[in-house]
Amino acid sequence: MAKINANYDRLTAGYLFPEVARRAQAFVQAHPGVKLLRLGIGDTTEPLAPAVIQGLRERVERLAKVEMYTGYGDYEGELALREAICRAYAERGIRLGTDEIFVSDGAKSDSGNIQSLFSSESVVAVEDPAYPVYVDSNVIAGRCGSFDSARQGYRGLVYMPCTEQNGFFPVLPAARVDLAYLCSPNNPTGAVATRANIRRFVDWALEHRAVIIFDAAYASYIRDPELPRSVYEVPGSERCAIEINSFAKSAGFTGVRLGWSVVPNALAVEDGEPGKLNQMWRRRQSTFFNGASNIAQQGGIAALSEQGHAECQRIIDYYMDNAAIIRSALLGLGLTCYGGSNAPYVWLKTPAGMKSWDFFDKLLAETHVVTTPGSGFGPSGEGFVRLSAFGHRADIEEAAESIRTNLRLG
Amino acid sequence: MAKINANYDRLTAGYLFPEVARRAQAFVQAHPGVKLLRLGIGDTTEPLAPAVIQGLRERVERLAKVEMYTGYGDYEGELALREAICRAYAERGIRLGTDEIFVSDGAKSDSGNIQSLFSSESVVAVEDPAYPVYVDSNVIAGRCGSFDSARQGYRGLVYMPCTEQNGFFPVLPAARVDLAYLCSPNNPTGAVATRANIRRFVDWALEHRAVIIFDAAYASYIRDPELPRSVYEVPGSERCAIEINSFAKSAGFTGVRLGWSVVPNALAVEDGEPGKLNQMWRRRQSTFFNGASNIAQQGGIAALSEQGHAECQRIIDYYMDNAAIIRSALLGLGLTCYGGSNAPYVWLKTPAGMKSWDFFDKLLAETHVVTTPGSGFGPSGEGFVRLSAFGHRADIEEAAESIRTNLRLG
């Protein structure tokens, strides 16, 4: 008699984004003809860079020719791509070997799967608020208890509040934590960890032999040269941190799918000597995965070329100009918001202490702007909504104008 | 103090194919100038069909245009692709809804991940021999004990021998089994389950409320019109079976990456009403995965078009002609072999009761032909090697000729 993995039943209703989509759709059905202004999902909207398109084209044509066709690639990704990724790290003074890079179909997959390397008894800490995958993957794997409605959190999971008071970077866990997920630039708050912030967590991890899972998927949005774009800019992190990254937001690959993780050879844990976790991830990926699409990988190589990088950077600048437009509209109304300066997300404090979903509904009803309720990212996200800067300029301007004109404030 | 998932340490050394690659490379290094004749990994070698190339091209061009660019797609795959998959099933009299189809980056991912839906206490049965992913994913998830060297199998895992005596289809499990993995056409034996074979397992599963995971990744290689290409050709299976399939071998997408799974709405288990597992897989995929590459999906749509299907079928015929060449060479030497008639794999019985790895080494040394040792697929694979029919015609002929000429038989 087969039985289900009952951990799935612990998950709270609906993944956040499907629920946002459901409410938006319901609103449109109730108000036919209304044009929604979507600042909800952080989805890229601008076409791929010309150099990237050229890379994709060339790979497709190779697949059409008997002498150039290739089938299965290396589980860990094509060497040329891993070399290009290493070169990009080297430009920031970080030396990584190609055997420390694991190409995947995206940061979401790696963020969800990485927990498989660790004991089911591990105590997990997440930033609060955080991207839901860190939490949900650990719930499914059985590392969390049931959902506590009063606390709006899972029992057994350590929430590290990111609040206005601490500048949206958590204080060190007081009790035992084995795995800590950090995301910088942060989704959803748009906050970026400083070197000192990371230094503190690395020292803590080394002292307690904990592991940091560092999600740097938005690193290319950092404009302040003083802010670190990789956890490995902080020495010692190679002994305690895994980094996850992606082409989704740096090159517009949300649909093309490509990412990578770094599992350093120096990384060690209590019962795993240096190299052990690197080998385990290699085994995990070669067992559960057959490599990212070869076409996407060629696109990734092109995105990391000199021309591709410059072209992708212009698209990033475009989205960051969008962020400035959104911030300006909100600040002009006297609202309080964060992020949006080194990240494509603006973290808006709801006025008059409104609940996130209530303000989501209010924005939808009054301005037709779709956002993402902060509470969907964790209990400390309550009282905030996330606005995404991804969108065509005209749509962003229309949304900003609609907020400016139609939002009824107290 | 982080600790590792110690289940990884239960895995026996190296995934099978890396070990094959290692020995082949070592042989070449020891014998410079030798040309290896590779019949080892089942990797496609012929270029993609023209219609598929056209589909890929068109999608790349869409990504270059602001009015046609798209980012994140549906987690479960593009509707047009799921509709095309449903139409392909309908042609064989199988009615499936698009909400029962889940597109993925390949059958390997789904084969590895599907176990996550079930209780960690589940008793798992695999065909012996079997594709290693079924076993390894369950070892990592903690459903198996340590490896028993004497039995050449994991404690707690139920091995269902597929032997010459039973026509390479297993008898029903005698003891409790909750999840049974079946693969037809089988990798590695090349055997295809008959309707009666499947009927027997479906009746067993319905009686015991067990679940069948049916891997049909090689279904397009079936030429005998009497043999079922899907588990759902057997009524009742929709209440007890999940089917996994792929474009890897039907359209040459080993590197492009695309597959799908069917989790029927009617599927139910002891503690999961009909629809429950369908919803759980939806949740699993939307949590751990962000959809297959949109470019690959367009290629899949093209492969299922009338023209694409016809073109892909010609490539399949080409590989099946290869299989006939390999079979003919082996049979001509008086060797015993199976498969290769409705599957791209020939399952060769080693002469004089040689061990699989010994015969692998002998074939490599004497004929320079790389195969895959049967014992790598499970204890009942001992005494066999797998020969893959994937390859350019000239290479297949050269390998066949080398075996005919150079293999020294006692």
Explain how this protein is built.
2 copies of one chain form a homodimer. With 410 residues, chain A is an alpha/beta fold. Chain A has a domain of 134 residues: Aspartate Aminotransferase, domain 1. Chain A has 11 helices and 15 strands. A 7-stranded mixed beta sheet of chain A has the order 2-10-9-8-7-3-6, with helices on both faces. In chain A, a hairpin with a 5-residue loop joins strand 11 and strand 12. The mean pLDDT of chain A is 96. At the A-B interface, helix 2, helix 4, helix 5, helix 7 and helix 8 of A face helix 2, helix 4, helix 5, helix 7 and helix 8 of B.
Supply the CATH architecture of the domain at 13-47 and 308-406 in chain A.
Alpha-Beta Complex
Protein chain pair with the most extensive contact, residues per chain: A-B, 85 and 85 residues
Beta-strand content estimate of chain A:
5-15%
Terminal CA distance of chain A: 59 Å
Task: Label the structural class of chain A.
Answer: alpha/beta
Helix content of chain A: 25-40%
Strand order of the largest sheet of chain A: 2-10-9-8-7-3-6
Which word captures the global form of chain A?
A: globular
The CATH topology label of the domain at 13-47 and 308-406 in chain A is Aspartate Aminotransferase, domain 1
Please count the beta strands of chain A (DSSP E, at least 2 residues each). 15
**Tally of separate helices of chain A:** 11
Main β-sheet description of chain A: 7 strands, mixed
Overall mean pLDDT of chain A? 96
User: What oligomeric assembly is this protein in?
Assistant: homodimer
Q: CATH homologous superfamily name of the domain at 13-47 and 308-406 in chain A? A: Aspartate Aminotransferase, domain 1
Radius of gyration of CA atoms of chain A, rounded to a whole number:
21 Å
The H/E string of chain A reads HEHHEHEHEEEEHEEEHHHEEHEEEH
